[in-house]
Amino acid sequence: MSIFEIVTEPIVPQTYADYVLRPEAGAVTVFTGHVREWTEGVRTLYLAYEAYVPMAQKKLAEIGHGIEQKWKGTRVAIAHRIGELQIGDIAVVIAVSSPHRSDAYEANEYAIERIKEIVPIWKQEIWEDGTQWVGYQKKKPREISHD
Amino acid sequence: MIKLYYFAGLREVTGTTEELADLAGQTVGDLSNWITDQYPDMPMQSVRIAINKEYALSTDVLQDGDVAALIPPVSGG
């Protein structure tokens, strides 16, 4: 069993770390992605995330189960928050446990890359002078890496 | 009938979050053309279509009651 969920309340990373921890695990990696204030000189006031929730949860589970197949002995939990998030808030948490640390690191990075490719979640940046749906329009900043 | 969902910036093109289309028996490619006819400003080159929560091929055939979601470039994380 694993948890792969879209949530609206603040994310508590320890919940997910605890979930994946088990006696066979010698390593747990926990990645948290946060709302960043400055992106290439443009100041973000806050972010609004939206998801196609049932499909997003399905895709998060697919990513997690894919990892558990690809890296034997891993266990994965992923949560992404939606709604209005303030600077510094956690948008996403990925916890991976594995017998040895290299798998936990690799699998965790793979998870965030896949989330950014296939999970139907959208980020709207709200600035002092406007808004944009990231990835949809080509306003400033042109290229945003969103971790 | 097929139920259509529009997300994120696509709502600003359609002015609605969802609608019904009489496209049962037609393909996802036909659906794509239907959307372009309805909304000439829709950036279909960057939109993926999911049917019943799974990314679809343009040759997939729509069944009555299917839910089609228009997925603009995702930006989670």
Provide the fold topology.
The complex is a heterodimer of chains A (147) and B (77).
Chain A: E1 4-7, H1 13-20, E2 27-34, E3 38-39, E4 42-51, H2 53-70, E5 75-81, E6 83-86, E7 90-98, H3 101-118, E8 121-127, E9 130-133
Parallel strand pairs in A: 1-5
Antiparallel strand pairs in A: 2-7, 3-4, 4-6, 4-8, 5-7, 8-9
Helix pairs in contact in A: 2-3
Chain B: E1 2-6, H1 10-14, E2 18-21, H2 28-38, E3 48-51, E4 54-55, E5 67-71
Parallel strand pairs in B: 1-5
Antiparallel strand pairs in B: 1-2, 3-4, 3-5
Report on this model:
The complex is a heterodimer of chains A (147) and B (77). With 147 residues, chain A is an alpha+beta fold. Chain A has helices at 13-20, 53-70, 101-118; strands at residues 4-7, 27-34, 38-39, 42-51, 75-81, 83-86, 90-98, 121-127, 130-133. In chain A, the strands form 2 sheets. In chain A, strands 3, 4, 6, 8 and 9 form a 5-stranded antiparallel beta sheet that branches. In chain A, strands 1-5-7-2 form a 4-stranded mixed beta sheet, sandwiched between helices. In chain A, helix 2 runs antiparallel to helix 3. The radius of gyration of chain A is 16 Å and the shape is elongated. Chain B has 77 residues and is α+β, with helices and mostly antiparallel strands. In chain B, 21% of the residues lie in helices and 26% in strands. In chain B, strands 2-1-5-3-4 form a 5-stranded mixed beta sheet. Chain B has one domain (2-71): Roll (Ubiquitin-like (UB roll)), CATH 3.10.20.30. Chain A binds chain B through residues 33, 49-52, 54-56, 58, 80, 91-92, 112, 115-124, 133-137, 144, 146-147, and chain B through 5, 7-10, 43, 46, 50, 53-55, 69, 71-77.
